[in-house]
Amino acid sequence: MSKGARVRQQRVQAPQKRGGRRIKTPQPAGKTGSRRNLYLGVLGAVVVLAAVLVGASVLSSGGSSSSPKTVSISSVGATNELLAGIPQNGIVLGNPNAPVTMQEFADIQCPGCDQYMRSAFPDIVRKYVRPGKVRIEWKGISFLGPDSEKGLRYVNAAGEQNKLWNVAELLYRNQGTENSGWVTNELLRSVGEAVPGLDADKVEANVNSSAVNREMADAANEFSTFGLSSTPGFAIGPTGGTLQVFNPSAYSVDAFAPTFAKYLKQSR
Amino acid sequence: MSDRSLRVAICVLAAAGAAIAGYLLYERWTGGPLVCATGGCETVQNSRYSKVAGVPVALLGLLAYTGIFVTGLLRTELARAIGAALAVSGLAFALYLVYVQNSKIHAWCQWCLASDAILAALAVLTVVRLLREPEPLAGGAPAVAAPRRR
Predict the structure, then answer these.
(1) Does A22 reach chain B within 8 Å, measured CB to CB?
(2) Nearest CA-CA partner of A198 in A241, A236, A177, A167
(3) How far is residue A18's CA from residue A20's CA, in Å, rounded to a whole number?
(4) A163-197 pLDDT, tens per residue?
(5) Which residues of B touch A49 (CB under 8 A)?
(6) What is the pTM of this model?
(7) What is the ipTM of this complex?
(8) Least Cα separation, residue A179 to chain B (angstroms)
(9) Taking Cα atoms as reference points, which of B87, B93, B147 lies closest to residue B121?
(10) Which helix (H) or strand (E) is A245 found in, with range?
(11) Which among A182, A197, A230, B148 counts the fewest CB atoms within 10 Å?
């Protein structure tokens, strides 16, 4: 190899810098081809990876037609934060060994229930349920119309995954006009998908389950036994003991506090 | 920008992306509430699009960012190619998820959007790094073996 050829070969093998800038050196034909192959390989990998990811996402999400669309819902963060970490078991919210039990008879459509859920429920949860003093049993009633039953079935079906209270709270926070058809499949789907750890497909599959039917029938019977005629209705007492109907003077935690205090004192 | 600067930028961005993905994954598994200014994080996080074939998208993101981070540490041509492939394909999937947030879920997740921005920057940086000629390794040897002389 001549001296000139050796110099050219060295420049190709080790590109030099001059003044901090790279000097573009001529590439051997074989190297240029191998870089072109590398680029094509990367491009191919990108196309395949992206196609696999998007395709798998479309398929695993149920495609575009088999599942209802979703709608924007509000108060997701506040609801999940309020209930995060509190034990739920079916229709029960709170420590199963809490000394006091409150039953809440509610229709998912009733404006008074919505008012209670907004004004009193969060404080009751923070002051009595989260510390393990009170447990609340959901007694869903559907007497206002078709939207009531549709929403209630979804709420109780979520109870099979111990997420009933998240769904109930979110439905109240997104309540529409009574019997306007506001409880749509899209709304229910959106609520279900907004609850951490809830399998919305499973909820939809269980809305007519025997467990849901039984819970609805039991709630209706107890509603009648207590002589209640409107919602929200409440019954409070010692856990495992006899509950008494309680009519709050207002939908605030202060209205419930004396009754809770009475039964908490009895339990000591 | 030197290859070293590119690698540092890639590693820093990949670490930030991994932190976001890790946070989303942690909250998903523990059921905790997400810090969210856009209000739609939980809706997106729990939508049916948040999993691909049963695997949480956040886990895929964590794996991709970790892979890109590792390729940023290495100086081989193969590492640069894998880094670019991961970042660009990740960006393509992220753009699809932006479409999903807008048109299917109707909610926006700030963490997802931040991750998308990081992926976009990583895609640019890794492609720039790939297209550059390899710098010689310490001692003068090129990062890629030169064609053998016959």
Answers:
(1) yes
(2) A167
(3) 5
(4) 999 999 999 989 998 888 999 998 999 899 888 88
(5) 85-86, 89, 92-93
(6) 0.54
(7) 0.77
(8) 25
(9) B87
(10) strand A244-246
(11) B148
